[in-house]
Specification:
The complex is a heterodimer.
Chain A (H helix, E strand, L loop, with lengths): L1 E6 L13 H10 L2 E5 L8 H11 L6 E4 L10 H10 L2 E3 L3 E7 L2 E8 L5 E2 L2 E2 L6 H22 L5 E6 L22 H8 L5 E4 L8 E3 L5 E4 L2 H4 L4 E5 L22
Parallel strand pairs in A: 1-2, 2-3, 3-4, 6-9, 9-10, 10-12
Antiparallel strand pairs in A: 1-13, 5-6, 7-8, 11-12
Chain B lengths: L1 H7 L11 H14 L9 E5 L2 E8 L2 H14 L5 E7 L9 E2 L2
Parallel strand pairs in B: 2-3
Antiparallel strand pairs in B: 1-2
Classes of the chains: A alpha/beta, B alpha+beta.
The site of one fe (ii) ion has 6 residues of chain A, from loops.
């Protein structure tokens, strides 16, 4: 079994630093990895990224993230990525990573993703250049996610995005804004690989659970949705029925109870 | 139309400020686009006694800042808030997935 902790949309700045830390200090006892689903900052400044590094760095478990739309606001993406990576937080955009755990190899592929809408109610690659650019951004992001997912050699595969791959987890948001919250192409990419779980954020007023048309479980882990520091998912019971304890980087054996 | 003629003559038909819907739209955009706020998840609801703001933010400071900015920009609109600060406790339960 692999234990995945996840949260998105923490929107850090100075005023939030320290709020997550008590719960994060407990995290290595109950999770093997922390996945962050984007919108780590309010405006995507280097200073805010440093707040993220302070709050989510040095946890004792690997931390993997994608960026969100807020992390792009100030056009400082390279600086933000640099600060995060220096703090040991791995930033995925159109690529994947394989993490080795006693229970098996966890593959995580991530993209920010983009809007566009869902089957039958979505934007089309047609008309003005602005519209075509919008839809092509969606398509390229989904293609990158699909390729990254299919390229990973692992025992358990997880897709990490900021935008939603399904409308299910948007329930609670106004229908009119669904096209700005996600796109079906992301779901299609997730279904193109043997994905076990898809995690996303961005829809602050959405709901927790959904499924892709191909049957992959989707969870919206946006902080305002889960209303706790992070959620924990246990996956891959089939990997090894006997070995549930973990001898990790922290060196402690801590079976989940 | 008559409004057009009125406003062309410099006497708008409505003098009591912009219609509520435009105020709502402006507040909504202010909350999303004002760098001091940058919140996309705040809902503006029209009630009998004015506008009520709903949603969840990451700190008490942000909640105060939202009210301050809205009051500053729309001093004549009565605005109250029911905005919550999102809890950050560790989870007590795990979701087991197949
Ligand atoms: Fe967000
Ligand atoms: Fe977002």
């Amino acid at each position: 079994m692999i234990r995945i902790a996840a949260v998105g949309d923490v929107h850090l700045d100075e005023d939030v630093v320290g709020r997550f830390r008590p719960a994060l200090d407990e995290l290595p006892d109950c999770a093997d990895v922390l996945l962050l689903a984007g919108d780590l900052t309010r405006h995507g400044t280097e200073a805010e990224a440093r707040c993220v590094a302070r709050e989510f760095g040095g946890l004792g478990v690997p931390v993997v993230t994608v960026l969100g739309n807020h992390d792009h606001q100030c056009d400082q993406v390279p600086q933000v990525v640099k600060v995060l990576e220096e703090a040991g937080i791995r930033v995925l955009e159109g690529e994947g990573i394989v993490l080795e755990f006693p229970a098996g190899r966890l593959g995580v592929a991530g993209v920010k993703g983009f809007g566009g809408g869902f089957a039958g109610r979505c934007a089309s690659d047609f008309g003005e250049p602005e519209m075509k650019a919008f839809v092509r951004t969606t398509n390229e992001s989904a293609e990158a996610l699909g390729a990254a997912l299919r390229g990973l050699d692992c025992d358990l595969l997880v897709a990490l995005t900021h935008y939603s791959p399904v409308p299910d987890t948007l329930a609670g948001e106004p229908l009119e804004i669904y096209p700005f919250l996600g796109s079906y192409q992301l779901g299609q990419a997730i279904d193109s690989a043997p994905t076990a779980l898809a995690l996303h954020g961005h829809a602050h007023a959405g709901s927790e659970r959904g499924t892709t048309p191909g049957g992959v479980r989707v969870r919206n882990v946006a902080h305002p949705v889960i209303k706790q520091a992070y959620s924990i998912f246990h996956l891959g019971d089939h990997l090894d029925a006997g070995e549930v304890s973990r001898i990790g980087h922290s060196g402690i054996q801590q079976p989940w109870s | 139309m008559s409004e057009h003629r009125d406003s062309a003559a410099g006497t708008p038909a409505v003098t009591a400020g912009p219609p509520d819907e435009y105020v709502e739209a402006e507040i909504h955009r202010l909350l999303a686009e004002d760098p001091a706020v940058a919140e996309q998840g705040i809902t503006v609801v029209r009630r009998e006694r004015g506008l009520v703001l709903y949603g969840e933010v990451e700190s008490p400071h942000r909640r105060e800042e939202i009210l301050r900015r809205v009051a500053e920009r729309f001093p004549d609109v009565p605005v109250t808030s029911d905005i919550g600060v999102i809890r950050t406790q560790a989870p007590t339960q795990v979701e087991q997935l197949p």
